[in-house]
Write a structure and sequence with these properties.
This protein has 281 residues and is an all-beta fold. It has two domains: 113 residues, Immunoglobulins (Immunoglobulin-like, Sandwich), CATH 2.60.40.10; 138 residues. The strands form four sheets. Strands 3, 4, 5, 7 and 8 form a five-stranded antiparallel beta sheet that branches. A five-stranded antiparallel beta sheet has the order 9-18-17-16-14, with no helix packed on it. A five-stranded antiparallel beta sheet has the order 11-10-12-13-15, with no helix packed on it.
């Protein structure tokens, strides 16, 4: 026998009426919310994943997940009140797309029953989409100086915003660039900061399999001197923007040859935000 739900109420008519009447309210109650929520920053999007606990609690009563987002105030560490529905899904994952790069957002998930009851919210998660590109070729300055320099962002129109045409520019090793590729006497290639205020740091203590493995920029370890470019390793570049705020760029070296290298890069256009990618916790 199935135990009666606390939301089912059975009312018997008084025995004096000579008959028995029953009123049954809906046998439904909210599902538990997802216990965890994690995310991955993408270019113009955020990939979300969460614990499938609502479905597991009651598969027959589960209908769908609802994905909400709102603006996030990075300085105040606060989710703002303008929540909007990004979409629904039956899977415990969702990609929120058509987002503005450099604009932090909060996310939360609820679960809905077949009867239309919505759970409370999952834990909040904030994340920031950021620009990225793959397989950029840079020559060693000693081989082709005109294709040896790289600039994450140059505010060409002076509006303070980063557009795609201003990002990931390959140029001369002698130009106004963030770093260049140098080759030493032993044939090793180096990433050498060039522009004033630009510093570079090795990311982690082992190779990474993809650019998305670079999450928050490290707090320390930066230097204005060159660092050897090793295939498979990640690097973070810290630089000053035209407004005086720091910006951060991520680099994964995909290939190192004798004369050139290939790299993948990401750039966080939100001033002072070290979030190159918000990795799952």
């Amino acid at each position: 026998m199935v135990a009666a739900s606390p939301y089912r109420v059975l009312l018997a008519a008084a025995a004096l009426t000579g008959c028995t009447q029953w009123t049954v309210l809906p046998d439904d109650e909210p599902l538990p919310p997802p216990a965890t929520l994690s995310s991955t920053s993408l270019d113009g999007a955020i990939a979300l994943r969460w614990a499938d606990t609502p479905y597991q609690a009651s598969p027959s009563r589960f209908l769908r997940y609802l994905v909400y987002s709102a603006p996030y105030d990075l300085d105040a560490d606060l989710c703002l009140a303008q929540w909007r529905l990004e979409g629904t899904t039956v899977a415990a994952e969702f990609i929120a797309g058509a987002l503005t790069n450099g604009a932090p957002r909060c996310f939360t998930i609820t679960a809905e029953t077949q009867g239309g009851l919505e759970s409370t919210r999952s834990p909040m998660r904030f994340d920031t989409p950021r620009f990225e590109a793959t397989a950029v070729a840079l020559s060693a300055a000693q081989v082709d100086a005109g294709q040896a320099g790289f600039r994450f962002w140059r505010d060409q129109n002076g509006d303070g915003g980063a557009s795609r045409s201003e990002l990931g520019r390959v140029g001369s090793a002698l130009g106004d660039i963030d770093f260049r590729v140098d080759r030493d006497g032993a044939g090793r290639l180096f990433l050498t900061p060039v522009r004033s205020g630009v510093e570079i740091a090795l990311y982690g203590n082992q190779p990474i399999t993809r650019l998305e493995d670079i999450d928050l920029a490290p707090v320390t370890g930066y230097a204005p001197s060159g660092i050897e470019a090793v295939a498979g390793w990640g690097y973070v570049v810290r630089m000053r923007g035209p407004d005086g705020f720091q910006r951060f760029g991520g680099v994964r070296v995909a290939y190192v040859g004798s004369n050139y290298l290939l790299l993948d890069w990401s750039f966080q256009s939100d001033p002072g935000n070290p979030e190159l990618l918000r990795a799952p916790e």
